[in-house]
From TrEMBL:
Gene assigned in the entry: rsmA
Entry annotated with the keyword rRNA-binding: no
MF terms (GO), sorted A to Z: 16S rRNA (adenine(1518)-N(6)/adenine(1519)-N(6))-dimethyltransferase activity; 23S rRNA (adenine(2085)-N(6))-dimethyltransferase activity; RNA binding
Chain's role: Specifically dimethylates two adjacent adenosines (A1518 and A1519) in the loop of a conserved hairpin near the 3'-end of 16S rRNA in the 30S particle. May play a critical role in biogenesis of 30S subunits.
InterPro entries: KsgA/Erm, rRNA_Ade_diMease-like_C, rRNA_Ade_Mease_Trfase_CS, rRNA_Ade_methylase_Trfase_N, rRNA_adenine_dimethylase, SAM-dependent_MTases_sf
NCBIfam families listed in its UniProt record: ksgA
SMART domains in alphabetical order: rADc
Subcellular location: Cytoplasm
One GO term describing the cellular component: cytosol
Protein name, as recorded: Ribosomal RNA small subunit methyltransferase A
Matching CDD domains: AdoMet_MTases
EC number(s) from the headed UniProt entry: 2.1.1.182
């Protein structure tokens, strides 16, 4: 098979699939991107340079991996599908700065992988075309990993990108928006039409760029409680914050009195909906609830 054609081209993708008798696994949400210009735009959006180490999630047959390898210092690619390991061994053979590991990112110890494969003295970025069905789990897993990631650049369904970047008082703003924006600045780089994938998905995608906040940020006293509060506050979007808090903490008279004290101290009206609160509002409320002795059921 001629290797002078880039992996992400439709011609090379078809040839690789045929040579290995590959079929797309719907259970793994596999859709391969076959547009070189878009692959390059993803690398540009991530601002990848030879100073950067990169983790890629789900390299597939190596289309994006190749573009990353041409621009980064080192690339560590995590691929869950055992069938693709020998394929990647061939397609990425020209690049000595790529390591492929057959592992599920949700089961992986990211800290250990980083310590094993990188020196730790370079900016670390994640770039990935995420399977739609576990997008949120992977994003939260990355943020909870304890690994200092400078950027997370991910291809997701357009509606998920809208939720990631949403601002208060909008229909897309929710618990995911708050959880991500607490740690990262979020932008949507560009839209990726469904027509550039094989097989073609039903919806358009978007490239979301999450950049680690550089300024000192306000942090809650207890991050776990903060996360629980945020999730519970959006449990029923049409209900008031007060009703959702009762669902989270209970309706006991003593608990309700403590919640009222906390809301007053946080200067938040019980009648508002969660979508009206900023990240800072949730942090303040979380701390005030803890100070008042309110604990989730």
């Amino acid at each position: 098979m001629a290797n002078n054609i880039e992996i992400g081209s439709p011609t090379r993708t078809r040839a690789i699939m045929e040579a290995y008798g590959l079929h797309f696994k719907k259970s793994l949400g596999q859709n391969f991107l076959t547009d070189i210009n878009i692959l390059r735009k993803i690398v540009t959006s991530a601002e990848i340079t030879t100073a950067d180490d990169v983790i890629e999630i789900g390299p597939g047959i190596g289309a994006l991996t190749e573009q990353l390898a041409q621009n980064a210092h080192q690339v560590l690619a995590l691929e869950i599908d055992q069938r693709l390991i020998p394929v990647l061994g061939e397609t990425l053979a020209p690049y000595d700065n790529v390591t492929v590991v057959n592992q599920d990112v949700l089961q992986a110890d990211l800290s250990q992988l980083v310590a094993t494969h990188f020196t730790g003295d370079r900016p670390l970025k994640v770039v990935a075309n995420l399977p739609y069905y576990i997008t949120t789990k992977i994003i939260m897993n990355l943020l909870d990993s304890g690994v200092a990631l400078d950027k997370i650049v991910i291809m997701v369904q357009k509606e998920v990108a809208d939720r990631l970047a949403a601002t208060p008082q909008t229909k897309d703003y929710g618990s995911l928006s708050v959880a991500v924006q607490y740690a990262m600045d979020v932008q949507t780089a560009f839209i990726v039409p469904k027509t550039v994938f094989v097989p073609q998905p039903k919806v358009d995608s978007a490239i979301a760029v999450l950049t680690r906040k550089t300024e000192a940020r306000v942090q809650p006293q207890d991050e776990s409680h903060f996360r629980t509060l945020v999730k519970g506050s959006f449990m029923h979007r049409r209900k008031s914050l007060w009703n959702n808090l009762q669902g989270l903490y209970g309706k006991d008279a003593d608990v309700k009195a403590k919640m009222q004290t906390a809301l007053t101290k946080a200067e938040i009206a019980p009648s508002v909906r969660a979508e009206a609160l900023t990240v800072e509002d949730f942090i303040r409320l979380s701390d005030c609830l803890l100070a008042a002795g309110v604990i989730a059921k």
